[in-house]
Amino acid sequence: MTEHTPTAAPAVEVRGLHKRYGATAAVDGVDLDLARGEVLSLLGPNGAGKSTTLEIIAGFRSRDRGTVQVLGSDPKTAGRAWRARIGIVWQRAVEDSPLTVREVVRHFAGYYPDPRPTDEVLELVGLDRQARTRVRALSGGQRRRLDVALGIVGRPELLFLDEPTTGFDPQARHAFWELLRQLAADQTSILLTTHYLHEAEALADRVVVLADGRVVADGDPATLGGQVDARTVVSWYADGEDQQVRTDQPTQFLRQLLDTHPGEIPQLSVHRPTLEQTYLTLVGDAPPPTAAPGGDATSRQPTPAPPQEAEVWT
Ligand SMILES: Nc1ncnc2c1ncn2[C@@H]1O[C@H](COP(=O)(O)OP(=O)(O)OP(=O)(O)O)[C@@H](O)[C@H]1O
């Protein structure tokens, strides 16, 4: 995570992006900004439109509608000089090859005007010991590191990574995060997709959550752009149904609840929603709480009125 310069023109500016595949609206009106030196993570379930968005921004896929500016150019018409300023790590791993790791990286370096030295790249991605290994002999995680090596060999100003750490062991993942932090500290703008919330939290300055091709949250990773409700959820069972109350004064609410329920309160629980629960609710994999509290006039043990700021889900 880095300090980025808010005054510089954004690295990426997307407005009203649409893309359909037949009846499927893969991207359905997405707005997206990436500042220079910023690390932005695109989150979302399978089929949310992350890869399609990334591919359009990187100039590998056409769009139906909307404007896209990347490093000051429209990727639809930008040329080779523009492409040399961008690094890309796609989901698919590098092809089988009889060449060695060093040979492949050196070959790719030849495409760029000012590449990083090959040995520096291999060290950065932790493949220095595999420099003479043939690509086809690499493990899955090592191939992914080679993908990353090919993405950064050209010293990109802007780096796109589509699920870069899939197949990494925890040690490799942490080493990779460190690498991205170094790149971001050097003012590389980074846009990555991931399925790992903790990866977004560990790496990104900002997250954008997509669901069904739309942005459902945009902001800081720790709260998913302010979507995480820090209030406590008190749940219990009464009057023949589940009861649930959200409150920022749980102690006061519990006192009232205990006063009105002299015995053991069935299924009493007190918790705060986690980032993951909020995420699942946002992307529609988890239903939002729907239980209504009791406390109507006929209730034998009326539910206390929630303290100020409490919200009752119905
Ligand atoms: N080439 C294509 N032809 C037809 N439909 C496509 C094509 N590419 C993507 N789609 C559809 O568009 C939607 C968005 O797909 P996309 O790959 O962008 O999602 P994603 O968020 O990257 O998913 P994942 O996390 O699984 O990689 C999906 O419904 C997918 O089936």
Automatic annotation (TrEMBL):
InterPro entries the UniProt entry points to: AAA+_ATPase, ABC_transporter-like_ATP-bd, ABC_transporter-like_CS, ABC_transporter_ATP-binding, P-loop_NTPase
Region of interest (Disordered), residue spans: 284-314
Compartments (UniProt record): Cell membrane
Keyword set includes 4Fe-4S: no
Membrane topology value: Peripheral membrane protein
UniProt keyword terms in alphabetical order: Antibiotic resistance, ATP-binding, Nucleotide-binding, Transport
Occurrences of domain ABC transporter (ranges): 12-237
Major location (coarse): membrane
Protein name per UniProt: ABC transporter ATP-binding protein
Organism: Lipingzhangella rawalii
